Write the structure tokens for this entry.
Amino acid sequence: MQLTDHEKAMLDGQEGPAVQKAMDLLMRYGEALGAERLVETHNVCATITATTPLQRDIALKGGGMDAVFSEFSLDSQEVVKIPKFKTFTSHLQLGFDPNQPERFGLSDDIVQFYGKSEKHVAGLGAQIMNTCTPYQVGNIPTRGEHCAWMESSAVVYCNSVLGARTNTEGRESCGAAMLTGRIPDWGYHQDAPRLATHVIELDVDVESVQDWGLLGYFMGDLVQDRVPVVYSRHGIKRVPNLPRLKHFGAAASSSGGVEMYHIMGITPEALSLEQALGGKAPVEVFRYGEAERRATYEKINATGTEADIQYVMLGCPHYTIEQIWEAAQLIEGRRVHENCELWIFTPRAIKSLADRNGYTEIIEKAGGIIMSDSCSAMSRAVPKGTKTVALDSAKQAHYLPAILGVQAWFGTTAQCIDAACTGRWNGGYA
Amino acid sequence: MKPSIEPQPVKARAAVLTLRGRKVVPGVAEGEALVTQDHISGWGGIDSRTGTIIETRHELRGQSFAGKVLVFPGAKGSSGWSAAFHLARLMNVAPAAFLFNEMTTKMALGAVVTHAPSMTDFDSDPLKCIETGDWVRVDADRGIVEITKKNARASS
């Protein structure tokens, strides 16, 4: 790889041993990729905090939090003193909500250790957003901005909706980027890999949040990790908003590995089909009509057989304030059934807005709860005795049966709120 | 545990195939091949503490990759891929080497932090040349993979 003088100096240790270790990792990673150079980044989203007993044990061996960062965020066996971050860094979701130790089965010991770790990384400069949707709470990259993000649903939103540039990074490459402001110039940082190769032609209207999840799941399954452009001959009637595109990308990155897509006339690099495809003919064109929509619905609902519901989870990816508002309106004056629990996940900053708006009170009065920092797939936490869950997220419906062996029903938010209040799945294809 | 390598009799040498490819992670390692046509998920796809594939419907579900030469199309799934294999290394249950076809950031970073010699961009498809149970020597530094077919191993 070709390095600038500044990068060579960092690699030579002129900015200290931690920056040197970070550059060493970026060299190994860049050479593995076959990258020719690094690109400057001023925007990292990653998981950094220490949350597991193994990490606690490593910290206790004497190196403290520096030992955890050295091993897990820099791939360095040698413990190096971690300086303050050079790059603006947002913390992603965790394996639990530290404010809900009982629901997540956390010992006091782990909650305390986590608290120490959170304080440590905040002191280094991490923003404790603790969400899979940093773009909801103050980290909205500009078109063309080079980023180093983890979290597949955030990566696909960053590339596709915002037109910023990131690959799917991991904990270690993000750790190196925080200390150096560099990431390999490869993949979606460059122009050509961002062009669409596949076309999804719509033959049905796609309007609701559920519609977008269905389309995303269909698309990911077909294109896997290639770049598609969604196109409608008649134009897309209702321009999809944040909750719709959040659901769409998360679904596409679950059934497949979509990290970048275009929607003609809507996303920033697809003012026309020609622009999205870079003037080339598509490799393949897929039609999405009523039959495909229905088959996708059946596929996501493949595990659901029992109508009794013990758990309704909303907030995958983390709910927007608009979605909490909608849930509050749907449940106001109703009660969550005694055999069922309703958990809603959102970033802490949005939870405080929901508190202020009175939505938290409405939801809690009905017997539900709003939590932050995590979700059931990340934490493996569900209410005791859960056999069947109802979800309004195609992503969560994809992962929960695999991770926990539960059955999942996927439907609209209204169907999920109804399931929470009746303890039964009365949804169906609509 | 890796069985010791005995000197190859002349007859069995004919059964040694050679692949050439590009170094991803340097080093030399050898072991028994574990081959799958399925992509592998890291987070949610493997148990990092036991070195086992756990993904529902994966053709290797329940099988251990610890100390094996893992031969597969590439990585898929969550951005926790590298962290899952990184943890497997700390638990001493990581693969001995990775041979794969599709380069992605998940795959590259995962291979790097696993510290397992790794290669890609082969002159012929390792998914077709290598079967589970073959003995495979990966010399990433020289860009060479040597495969002793399991039949030849059994008869030697």
